[in-house]
Design brief:
heterodimer, A: about 110 residues, alpha+beta, Arc Repressor Mutant, subunit A, 3-stranded antiparallel beta sheet, 4 helices, B: about 350 residues, Protein Transport Mog1p, Chain A, 8-stranded antiparallel beta sheet, 8 helices, elongated
C-alpha cells in the first residue's frame, strides 16, 4: 500500500535518511547502506531516486553540492527530527519486544 | 562486415513490463541482445547476435517526472553507477541492461513505491484507450444514423465486423489495466501484448475498411445489386425512375437503399438487406423495428406492431397517411416506407410477390 505521509518510515527510507547524516551522492548512499547492513538491505537506483525526490520535496533533505554531475545531499533539521522520531519509535518497539519475549523465557 | 540484425514484434505495454523483461532475457538465452526498439503502430525490437553471457534486463516505468531531460540524466547516471545502462525505450517503458559481468541490485526494490509510480503512469494510456473506444463508437454511430444499433455499428461493414472482434480485447485490456494496477502479480503471465498487437492492427484496418461506405453517393439501379426492387408500376402508380445507394457491404450482409419518386405523392423508400444467415437478418429486423416509424409531418415516432403476412417476421406502423412495413423471410429483410394507400392491405400480396418474399402465402 502506498504511504501518503512519512509518519512511519520503511526500512529503506530509514536507511536512506540515516546515510544522509553525512553528505553523500546517490551511489554513495547505496554503497553505504549495503555496507552498514552487511548487504541485508539493498536499495535499487530507481527506488533511491524516487525516495530522494520525495524527501527533497518534503524538506527532509537538501541538495548540498554537485560534483562531476553527481548531486550530493544531506539531511535538513526537519529530516533529522523525523529520523530521530523513527529511531525512538523503533527503540520503543524493540524494548516492548524484549520485555514480552524475555518474560516468556524460563528463568 | 555487416552485422546481422533480427527484428521481432514488441507489443508489451507498461502493465506487462515483467513479461517484457522475461521475454528479453529469453532472447538473451538464445544469443540475441537488444539494440533498440522502433516505436510506432507496430513497435519492433531489434537484436544483434552476442557472444558474451546472456544479459540481465530491467524494464522500468518511464515516470512522468523524468520527462525533464535533466532529471532523466540524473536518473540514468544513478542507474549507470548502480550497474544499469539504458538499452532502449518505448511508450511508457525504459529498458535497462546490466553491465556485462555485473550483477546489480534491481532498479526497483520497493514494490509499494513501484506500484504507486505505475498507477500514475498507467492512468494516461487508460484514459486514451477509453477516448479511442468512444471515438470508434461515435464513428459508427455517425455512419449508422441517430440511434446506436448493433447491426449498424458492427455488421454493415467489414470494418465493423473487425471492430466487433477487437472490442472485447479492448475492454479486457482496459479492465486488466485497472486491476493490474492493484494486483500486478496476478496478471503478469497474461499475453496482453498479443491483444495489444491485434488491436494495433485491427483498429487502423477498421477505419480504412469503413471509408468506402462513407464515400457512397446515390446512383441508378443498374449500379446496385440485382435484387427485386419495387417500381412505381408495382404500386399502380406513376413516377420517375428509382435511384439508390449501398448502405452496407460486409462479409455478413449487404444493404441497399432505394427511393422511388411517385407523382403527386410522397416517395416510396425501400431498404433491402440480404444477409448470409437468418440470425443476422433477425438482428437487422430487430434494429429496424427499434427505430420505429417517423414521418416528416409527424414528429412522434410510431412503434411497429406485428402483423401476420405468412412471413417469418412482419411488422407495420402508421403515422397519418404514411405507412412503414418491415418484412423478413429467411435471410432477407425489406423495409418499406411510403403512402399508406400504396402499401394498403389489398396491395400487399402483389408487393410481396414483386419482392420475391412469398413466405407462407
Amino acid at each position: 500500500m502506498a504511504r501518503k505521509k512519512l509518519d512511519t518510515l520503511t526500512e529503506q527510507m530509514y536507511y536512506v535518511l540515516l546515510s544522509l547524516t553525512k553528505e553523500r551522492h546517490g551511489y554513495g548512499i547505496m554503497q553505504y547502506v549495503s555496507e552498514l547492513t552487511g548487504g541485508r538491505v539493498a536499495i535499487g537506483a530507481g527506488t533511491l531516486y524516487a525516495l530522494l525526490a520525495r524527501f527533497e520535496k518534503e524538506g527532509l533533505i537538501q541538495l548540498a553540492a554537485e560534483e562531476e554531475n553527481r548531486k550530493r545531499y544531506r539531511l535538513t533539521a526537519e529530516g533529522r527530527k523525523v529520523l530521530e522520531e523513527e529511531f525512538d519509535r523503533l527503540r520503543r518497539q524493540v524494548a516492548d519486544g524484549e520485555r514480552v519475549l524475555r518474560e516468556e523465557e524460563p528463568s | 562486415m555487416k552485422i546481422r540484425e533480427r527484428r521481432a514484434y514488441f507489443g508489451f505495454g507498461v502493465r506487462d513490463r515483467a513479461e517484457a523483461q522475461r521475454w528479453l532475457e529469453d532472447q538473451g538465452q538464445r544469443g540475441w541482445v537488444l539494440t533498440r526498439i522502433r516505436t510506432g503502430f507496430f513497435p519492433t525490437a531489434c537484436f544483434v547476435p552476442m557472444e558474451d553471457t546472456p544479459p540481465r534486463y530491467c524494464v522500468d516505468v518511464a515516470h512522468w517526472s523524468l520527462r525533464d531531460p535533466e532529471r532523466q540524466r540524473d536518473y540514468d547516471r544513478l542507474a549507470a553507477d548502480a550497474g544499469w545502462s539504458l538499452a532502449a525505450q518505448t511508450g511508457g517503458m525504459k529498458i535497462y541492461r546490466a553491465h556485462p559481468s555485473q550483477d546489480p541490485v534491481p532498479l526497483q526494490t520497493d514494490p509499494a513505491l513501484e506500484r504507486e509510480r505505475y498507477r500514475r503512469e498507467a492512468l494516461l494510456p487508460g484514459i486514451l484507450t477509453g477516448i479511442l473506444f468512444l471515438l470508434l463508437l461515435l464513428l459508427f454511430w455517425a455512419a449508422g444514423g441517430r440511434r446506436l444499433c448493433f447491426y449498424r455499428l458492427f455488421l454493415q461493414s467489414n470494418g465493423g465486423l473487425l471492430c466487433l472482434a477487437a472490442l472485447p480485447l479492448l475492454v479486457l485490456g482496459m479492465l486488466l489495466a485497472l486491476r493490474a494496477s492493484r494486483r500486478d502479480r496476478r496478471y503478469r503471465r497474461l499475453p496482453l501484448h498479443l491483444a495489444n498487437a491485434f488491436c494495433a492492427l485491427v483498429l487502423p484496418l477498421c477505419l480504412l475498411l469503413s471509408l468506402p461506405l462513407h464515400l457512397q453517393i446515390a446512383g441508378p439501379l443498374e449500379d446496385l445489386p440485382p435484387w427485386p426492387y419495387l417500381a412505381a408500376e408495382d404500386l399502380d402508380r406513376s413516377g420517375s425512375a428509382p435511384y439508390g445507394m449501398v448502405l452496407g457491404d460486409s462479409l455478413l450482409l449487404k444493404g441497399v437503399y432505394v427511393r422511388t419518386p411517385l407523382d403527386g405523392e410522397r416517395s416510396l423508400q425501400q431498404t433491402h438487406w440480404h444477409c448470409q444467415t437468418g440470425w443476422a437478418a433477425a438482428l437487422v429486423a430487430r434494429g429496424l423495428r427499434g427505430d420505429g416509424l417517423s414521418a416528416e409531418a409527424d414528429a412522434a415516432v410510431r412503434p411497429y406492431r406485428p402483423i401476420d403476412l405468412g412471413l417469418e417476421e412482419a411488422y407495420i406502423a402508421d403515422s397519418g397517411d404514411y405507412r412503414g412495413l418491415i418484412l423478413r423471410q429467411g435471410s432477407v429483410v425489406v423495409l418499406l416506407k411510403g403512402p399508406a394507400g400504396a402499401l394498403s392491405g389489398a396491395a400487399l400480396p402483389h408487393l410481396l410477390e414483386c419482392l420475391d418474399l412469398k413466405g407462407g402465402l
